[in-house]
Amino acid sequence: MAEVPDTWNPAQYEKFRAERAAPFFDLLALVRRRAGMRVVDLGCGTGELTHQLHRELQARETLGVDRSEAMLAKTAAFAGDGLRFEQGDIASFTANPAFDLIFSNAAIQWVPEHELLLGRLAASLADGGQLAVQVPANHDHPSHTIAAAVAGEPPFREALGGYVRHSPVLAVEQYAAVLHRIGFEVQHARLQVYGHLLPSRDEVVEWVKGTLLTDYEARMPADLFQTFLVRFRERLLPCLDDAKPYFYPFKRILFWAQR
After folding, report:
1. 66: closest CA among 48, 89, 50?
2. Residue ranges per domain, the chain?
3. Contact 131, 118 (CB under 8 A)
4. What CA–CA distance (Å, rounded) separates 172 from 92?
5. How does pLDDT run across 44-91, given as a tens digit for each residue?
6. Distance linking the first and last C-alpha atoms of the chain
7. Residues of 21-37 as b/e, b for ≥16 C-beta within 10 angstroms?
């Protein structure tokens, strides 16, 4: 299978910087702080929030990991004083020596088989180590379901070879059960709805262009993806209230656990 190209666009992603940062700070608030920790941020993106994580925790060492070269290109401004970045795949991440905190904000939704993934991450934690994860859980919203429906239409279906993105995200109670099974003694797991006030319903398209739709963009020619966007907008907008501002409810799961 050919490698899927990197279509992440930092500028597009950061159009909603404040809205995307809010869950990060909620997740950080769950972490039990201890100066001098070794920390890894899986899915660090441009590194701005990783820098905040490093400073807030007064970490001895923080490593930011991301697959996207385009995103990592922005991290140089934040590296130094114990903070560094490298390219890597969350799905195959392991650590020796182990980390005191594995942190991941809005990243593991791109990785399959979450029970196996969390087991592997737990194996990279030191004694007393913490795991803190935030994952989008909005895959049942029209902004996501209609993307899958359009992917099933010709000519997109043929260009994608029948590929349709299916979210691997579990229900919040399933994450709680998994954390118990893999040996975490204490945990916190919750589903939270973030209500975003966007200027209009059209901005929902801009939102998913920076995340979900990158998966389809990477798998078809550029001109066909522009046609995909037109069709997506045509099908999505009638399903959303024509209100200004538009209230975009976005569900996310946050969980923290300690060994």
Report:
1. 89
2. 10-258
3. yes
4. 24
5. 999 999 999 999 999 999 999 999 999 999 999 999 999 999 999 999
6. 38
7. eebbebbbebbeeeeeb
**How far is CA 133 from each of CA 73, 108, 156, 157, 223, rounded to the nearest angstrom?**
24, 8, 33, 33, 36
DSSP 239: G
217 C-beta neighbours (distance < 10 Å), count = 21
- Is residue 150 within 8 A of residue 226, CB to CB? The reply is no
pLDDT digits (tens, 9 = 90+) for 120-150: 999 999 999 999 999 999 999 999 999 999 9
Mark residue 80 as left, alpha or beta (left: phi above 0; alpha: psi -120 to 50; beta: remaining).
Answer: left
How many whole angstroms separate alpha carbon 85 and alpha carbon 208?
A: 26
Q: How far apart are CA 164 and CA 144, in angstroms?
A: 11
196 backbone φψ class: left, alpha, beta (φ>0; ψ -120 to 50): beta
pTM of the model: 0.93
For residue 103, list its beta bridge partners: 41, 132
Q: How many CB atoms lie within 10 A of CB 77?
A: 10
Q: Which fold has domain 10-258?
A: Rossmann fold (3.40.50)
